[in-house]
Amino acid sequence: MRIVDLIIKKREGIELSDKEIEFIISNYVSGEIKDYQMASFLTTVVFKGMTPKEIGKFTFEMMKSGKIIDLSAINGIKVDKHSTGGVGDKTTLVVGPIIASLGVPVAKMSGRGLGHTGGTIDKLESIPGFSVELTDEQFISQVNKIKIAVIGQSDNLVPADKKLYALRDVTGNVSSIPLIASSIMSKKLATGSDAILLDVKVGNGAFMTTIEEAKKLSEQMITIGKQLNKDVRVEMTNMSRPMGKAIGNKNEVLEAIETLKGNGSKDFIELCYSASATILKQAKVTDDEKEAYKMIDEVIKNGKALEKFYEFIKYQGGDVEKLKAKDFWNPSFKLEVFAKKDGVMEITSALDFGIVASKLGAGRISKEDSIDFEAGIQINKKTNDKVKKGDLLFTLFSSKAISNELVEELEKAYTINEKEVENKIILGKME
Could you state a single Gene Ontology molecular function term (predicted)? Predict the structure, then answer.
């Protein structure tokens, strides 16, 4: 078997066999197939696509290219939630404790942020003492004891995806639904959960900019899940605007806490409740949406979800007292942005807010960059809020002096209108 023959076969639109796909992945990971050959194969896939059978096998071979976590020792239906990346997306910090407080085991592996999107692991590491590194035994034991653990992605998890993603990035082969779907699903499936909720972000702050693209990706990922006997469901959510009122790390942790107290912003509460309800159905706690919402409401109102959050932080070494202290988030510099006229706020670009937050120090431009946990943006006026001239719109925070140029960059990301605009949060659900 030769890779050149398989490239030609794929180019001619002939479906590859299971053995041929296994040959491609295993030989690329071992180095037998060179980058220039694999780049040619990936380019062919971008133009010719893949059949559902090919995508399923491609994902499976990527998944088993490295370590697969065995969660069979965890009691119950293990659930995981994955977001395709957004601005102000601290959903895991709220949904995880809600679900765990209702007795559903949450065994989650999360990533760091890169570019304009924030990472769950970065937010958790902003809490003094919190450790994202647990052995498999510690991870399983913690989920069995308190129903939730969140760890960083292991270096030996899905090495095929690491190699392929790096190659796709530098050869212009990122925008392919089959390749995106197999990349996401190989990592999720390798972490061993029984049920996976995928939050597919749509809009200018997301990788999928249109609902049509998001539906195609969602269909592919659900199909992969079915082929590998996993319950995979999708919620497509709006990422044309930042989620919630905080963008950053420490300030997003604080917003998550406020949301668990019942004081979250309307859009973020809607996202968290919807995701939690879907997961409760996947975990077979209830098959009734209204009942699920009642259960979520109850653990917010009686404080059990917040209690679970603090327990989870403490179990992974986080200093809960420092987290609760008034000076937990204590940036040295701030710059306020005020309204220049009366009207109704419309935030038009999550992407620009994410980029400005990164430039303040809240995110990474390259993987080697360190993060300023104090940096970020607080949004005082959300889309469709009434605004009067002189009202505080946003506050920029950092540990270093803040340039007025960043305020100018933000000016292209919002407008003040005469009337309200449509602002749907949940754009669609698929299963």
Answer: pyrimidine-nucleoside phosphorylase activity
Q: Which of 83, 110, 183, 358 is catalytic?
A: 183
On the 0-12 / 13-18 / 19+ scale of CB atoms within 10 A, 154 is middle
Catalytic residue among 10, 57, 81, 168: 168
Q: Is 116 tagged catalytic?
A: no
Catalytic residue list contains 267: no
Residue 187 falls in the annotated catalytic set:
yes
Length of the chain: 431
Residue 161 annotated as catalytic: yes
Q: Specify the pLDDT at position 363.
A: 82
Round to whole Å and give the CA distance between 21 and 60: 10
Q: Which residues pair with 335 in a beta bridge?
A: 396
Cα separation, 201 vs 80, in Å, equals 17
Catalytic residue chosen out of the listed positions 82, 123, 364, 381: 82
pLDDT band at 192 (very low <50, low <70, confident <90, very high): confident
Cβ(217)–Cβ(177) under 8 Å?
Answer: yes
Rounded to whole angstroms, what are the CA distances from 22 to 7, 60, 61, 376?
14, 9, 6, 45
pTM, entire model: 0.90
- Domains of the chain from N-terminus onward: 3-49 (1.20.970.10), 79-323 (3.40.1030.10), 333-417 (3.90.1170.30)
Identify whether 48 is a catalytic site residue: no
Side chain identity at 43, as an amino acid letter? T
Q: Are 338 and 388 in contact (CB under 8 A)?
A: no
For residue 371, the cross-strand partners are none
Q: How confident is the model at residue 157 (pLDDT cuts 50, 70, 90)?
A: confident
Which one of 89, 122, 161, 194 is the catalytic residue? 161
Residue type at 390 in one-letter notation: G
Pairing outcome for strands 231-238 and 426-430: antiparallel
Q: How many CB atoms lie within 10 A of CB 229?
A: 7
Asked if pLDDT for residue 188 goes beyond 90, the answer is no
Amino acid at 253: V
Q: What is the DSSP letter of 229?
A: T
